[in-house]
Hints:
6-stranded mixed sheet; 2 domains; about 65% helix; 4-stranded antiparallel sheet; alpha/beta; 22 helices; ABC transporter transmembrane region fold; Rossmann fold
Amino acid sequence: MLNKRTAAWTTLNEEEIGAVWDFGAAKQLFPFLRGKLIVFTLAMVMMTFYTLTIVALPRIIGYVTDAFILTQNKSSLNQWGIALFIVVTINYVANVSYLKLLAQASQHVLLNLRMKMFDHLQNLSIPFFDKNEVGRIMSRIQNDVNQLQEFFPMLALTLGDMLSVVGITIVMLLMNVKLALYCFTVIPFLLFIIALWQTRAKAAFVKVRQAISVVNSRLQQNISGVRIVQSFNREERNAKIFDGVNDDHLQANIKAIRLSSALMPTVEFITAISLSLVIIIGGNMVLGEELQLGELIAFTLYVQRFFEPIRSLTMQYTEFQRTTTSAVRIFELLSVEPEVIYNESIKSNSKIEKSSKLKFDNVTMEYTKDRYALKNLDLSIESGEMIALVGPTGAGKTTIASLAARFYDPTEGTVLIDGLNLKELPREYLRQRLGMVLQEPFLYSLTVAENIKYNHDNASLEDIIKASKAAGAHDFINELSEQYDTILHERGMNLSLGQRQLISFARVLLADPEILILDEATANVDTFTEIKIQKALNTLLNNRTSIVIAHRLSTIRNADRIIVMDQGKILASGSHEELMNSSEFYQNLYNLNFTE
């Protein structure tokens, strides 16, 4: 069963935009700066210098003006001119430096975060993937991680903007309190407009996210199900449906753009009002000799620079919400604990007496509460014994195979190998000894040779060819364009299903496991390919403890025992002849499914 953290993550609303700031999520991001903390710190120092120069420039320009116009002091003008050049240079260097350093630190965070998520997902248990859509998981890895690449630049920009607003406010008040207060009278109106804008903008941006989610969903379904679309001649109707959701996305974007475009002119208008107050009131103060001309010019520049960071902070608000929400989603995923925990305290396999004997001791398995896949099952499989599991769909056959491979842990009871509970064994010990061939073979977009030697990098080409010959795959591989160096398409789609299955057999043969599980491995192959597979099976199953699930008599007739199952229980066991004479259920099953 999924734990509480997993359940919470499963029900997370994909379209939700949460709080503008989540300290817990932000705090969890900083460890991913490891190795680049000095770079990030230096970036923040450069950002501080950049911000301070922004605050200093208008005041220096004011001093330059006063030095030139009022005093006609050429020496003083030269000094302030040199100071202005130095400050502008620092401004440029600090700006370029902090942007480069922040980009470097941010990309490093994304690298560490993706690696952490990849490792974490590989170690999560199969039940997690049963209960969560691949698209939702991929959204966490791709969309949410990409969204986070703006987190540290936005954090630095926000801190810089806040520092700039505070610095400009202090300087303006120190220069002239009266004129500064007149400038600040427009701020309450600005804050009211921003609050009103944020309320509407948040809803608009949520609708944009929802709309693009629907567009992506429709697109993904049509691409994945293109064969069904074409076979049912649904192209025209699907195009109309897609046109509708695409138009919804367009309208949502237009509304969001209208809101965004309305904010900038409004802030500019309020800035102009404040600037007008400075010019009118400050001009009169200059004429009355209450204020110097240089100070008036500095005030004018400060007014413009004062509202720029406020406007920037407003635009960053929604982006911060998205980024923070992405961080929360990512760390919710990273907080999910595997249900299947391996005991890695056993370091040496030599301490374990190996006999390859499997035992299911009073095993009960529930995938969902009160719906039993297995109920109080007892089954022993001797070392080197081949058993075949037969029964109708839902009988519990694949559950036995999955428990033996420890993809799941039983709800009750124990599964043992060599007399030891699987829960007490390290992962490597079990994985090295157990091989599995599934009904749907999975091949990677690698070469044929790389697919066969998967996780056995030390295997030579001779070893690969030997395994391929034993599996009956060598002949068709030699007919491929690059033979063993042929790159396979996604999931091996440039091969037939039978050919893909033969390669999966070769992969298991090369691994040479002591315990083998075949789950409907011949269900989807033609008779000619099955003959090849049967030859491979004779080699593959020889002297191995084996669990075979099949619907064809040719696959199970050589089994040492046939286990007949229904509704999670064992009804009968024995050889084919014994069961034909003693089990009416098996007779009916044979007549329905196994007659060739």
